[in-house]
Amino acid sequence: MEAIAVLGIVIFIVAVLAYYGIFTSVETGARMANRRVERLEAEQIREDIEYYNENSIKDADFKSAVKQKQEIAKYRSL
Hints:
Layout: H1 2-19, H2 22-54, H3 59-76
Protein backbone atom coordinates (compact mmCIF):
# COMPACT_ATOMS: atom_id res chain seq x y z
CA MET A 1 0.00 0.00 0.00
CA GLU A 2 2.90 2.34 0.74
CA ALA A 3 4.33 1.75 -2.74
CA ILE A 4 1.08 2.96 -4.31
CA ALA A 5 1.14 6.08 -2.13
CA VAL A 6 4.74 6.82 -3.09
CA LEU A 7 3.91 6.26 -6.76
CA GLY A 8 0.94 8.63 -6.44
CA ILE A 9 3.13 11.31 -4.85
CA VAL A 10 5.74 10.95 -7.60
CA ILE A 11 3.09 11.23 -10.30
CA PHE A 12 1.64 14.29 -8.56
CA ILE A 13 5.06 15.97 -8.35
CA VAL A 14 5.77 15.29 -12.02
CA ALA A 15 2.36 16.68 -12.96
CA VAL A 16 2.97 19.86 -10.94
CA LEU A 17 6.41 20.32 -12.52
CA ALA A 18 4.91 19.84 -15.96
CA TYR A 19 2.17 22.37 -15.17
CA TYR A 20 4.69 25.02 -14.13
CA GLY A 21 6.83 24.44 -17.20
CA ILE A 22 9.96 23.01 -15.65
CA PHE A 23 10.33 20.66 -18.60
CA THR A 24 10.70 23.62 -20.94
CA SER A 25 14.04 24.44 -19.37
CA VAL A 26 15.04 20.78 -19.60
CA GLU A 27 14.22 20.80 -23.33
CA THR A 28 16.17 24.05 -23.76
CA GLY A 29 19.17 22.52 -22.03
CA ALA A 30 18.94 19.42 -24.22
CA ARG A 31 18.83 21.57 -27.38
CA MET A 32 21.84 23.55 -26.18
CA ALA A 33 23.76 20.34 -25.50
CA ASN A 34 22.84 18.95 -28.92
CA ARG A 35 24.09 22.10 -30.65
CA ARG A 36 27.35 21.93 -28.70
CA VAL A 37 27.86 18.29 -29.63
CA GLU A 38 27.17 19.11 -33.30
CA ARG A 39 29.81 21.87 -33.18
CA LEU A 40 32.30 19.48 -31.59
CA GLU A 41 31.54 16.91 -34.27
CA ALA A 42 32.12 19.46 -37.05
CA GLU A 43 35.38 20.54 -35.42
CA GLN A 44 36.51 16.92 -35.12
CA ILE A 45 35.73 16.27 -38.78
CA ARG A 46 37.69 19.38 -39.78
CA GLU A 47 40.66 18.27 -37.66
CA ASP A 48 40.54 14.79 -39.20
CA ILE A 49 40.55 16.25 -42.71
CA GLU A 50 43.52 18.48 -41.84
CA TYR A 51 45.37 15.54 -40.28
CA TYR A 52 44.91 13.30 -43.29
CA ASN A 53 45.83 16.09 -45.71
CA GLU A 54 49.06 16.77 -43.83
CA ASN A 55 49.94 13.08 -43.46
CA SER A 56 49.23 11.79 -46.93
CA ILE A 57 51.51 9.19 -48.46
CA LYS A 58 53.70 10.49 -51.22
CA ASP A 59 54.06 8.45 -54.42
CA ALA A 60 57.81 8.00 -53.92
CA ASP A 61 57.26 6.70 -50.37
CA PHE A 62 54.64 4.26 -51.63
CA LYS A 63 56.94 2.93 -54.35
CA SER A 64 59.77 2.56 -51.83
CA ALA A 65 57.52 0.61 -49.45
CA VAL A 66 56.39 -1.72 -52.25
CA LYS A 67 60.01 -2.32 -53.26
CA GLN A 68 61.00 -3.10 -49.66
CA LYS A 69 58.07 -5.48 -49.32
CA GLN A 70 59.16 -7.31 -52.48
CA GLU A 71 62.73 -7.59 -51.17
CA ILE A 72 61.52 -8.98 -47.85
CA ALA A 73 59.36 -11.51 -49.67
CA LYS A 74 62.41 -12.50 -51.76
CA TYR A 75 64.52 -13.07 -48.61
CA ARG A 76 61.78 -15.13 -47.00
CA SER A 77 61.72 -17.49 -49.96
CA LEU A 78 65.45 -18.34 -49.57
